[in-house]
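for the recovery benchmark. tokens below, seq after
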């Protein structure tokens, strides 16, 4: 049985096809850029088509044929047609999947409407499940035995956060979903690894919704004394996506500048 790293010459992700949800903004956009710069062909999926197109324009083109897919990760039909369309266009399923699509809808627990709780769970947790399931089915049917799925959790899923009962619960769920997916998909006949990244506070449009005074206080708690940059999450994504992490599955990597270590 052949095990271990597949050693490739040159770029770490060359000849790989990567699906990135939430690819139109923030961390997702940085992941698309990092992957493309490392040689991957990128399927940029987002519910906001204009921002996904902007990401596409920012990618190095060369011979790779990156593409945009309008997708709502909360809809099983939309996710099914995303994976089917990628297979039609590229004649293979993506062997790398990064689940970046996510939202916040903050409110204190005592005031939070059930719909607000549910909406965040649907995008962040169920959306991640639907994409993992659809992409894994396609990969297994293809018999490729080499996949890597990376899910965006959050450090606040571990420690809780004021006003984020919905968000923190969804992100704790992403970690458990990652571990179960890793256990079920690791076997040799499937060959799919599944890991999570837990960012701290990263300078993106999502973090920009946090009131400046709150962000200032957060920064004071970060040992490295600053917010993270989306590219600093993207480079960890590229490590987990690549064969450099060939014996890592089911783990959660914290990218927090030391916050809540
Ligand atoms: P962002 O708001 O900049 O980007 C999120 C993207 O997801 C947007 O392009 C949005 O259109 C897309 N999206 C939202 N709902 C969708 C849906 N139903 N279907 C498809 N796409 C959808 O956010 P970001 O900061 O780049 O966050 C990316 C991921 O990282 C999220 O899962 C977020 O929870 C997580 N995260 C972010 C931070 C941070 O500080 N920015 C910290 C921890 C975790």
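predicted aa per position
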């Amino acid at each position: 049985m052949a095990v271990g790293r597949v050693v490739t010459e040159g770029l770490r992700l060359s000849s790989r096809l990567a699906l990135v949800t939430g690819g139109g903004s923030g961390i997702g956009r940085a992941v698309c850029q990092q992957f493309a710069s490392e040689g991957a062909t990128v399927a940029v999926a987002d519910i906001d088509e204009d921002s996904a197109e902007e990401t596409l324009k920012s990618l190095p083109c060369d011979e790779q044929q990156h593409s945009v897919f309008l997708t709502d990760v909360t809809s099983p039909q939309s996710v099914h047609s995303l994976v089917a369309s990628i297979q039609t266009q590229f004649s293979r399923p993506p062997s790398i999947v990064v689940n970046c699509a996510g939202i916040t809808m903050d409110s204190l627990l005592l005031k939070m409407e059930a719909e607000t709780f549910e909406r965040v769970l649907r995008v962040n947790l169920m959306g991640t499940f639907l994409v993992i399931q659809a992409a894994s089915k396609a990969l297994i049917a293809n018999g490729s035995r080499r996949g890597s799925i990376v899910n965006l959790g959050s450090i606040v899923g571990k420690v809780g956060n004021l006003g984020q009962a919905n968000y923190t619960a969804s992100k704790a769920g992403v970690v458990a979903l990652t571990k179960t997916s890793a256990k079920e998909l690791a076997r040799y006949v499937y060959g799919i690894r599944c890991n999570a990244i837990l960012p701290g506070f990263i300078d993106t449009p999502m973090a920009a919704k946090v009131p400046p005074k709150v962000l200032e206080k957060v920064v004071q708690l970060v040992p490295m004394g600053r917010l993270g940059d989306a590219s600093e999450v993207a480079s960890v994504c590229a490590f987990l996506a690549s064969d450099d992490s060939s014996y890592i599955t089911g783990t959660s990597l914290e990218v927090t500048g030391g916050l809540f270590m």
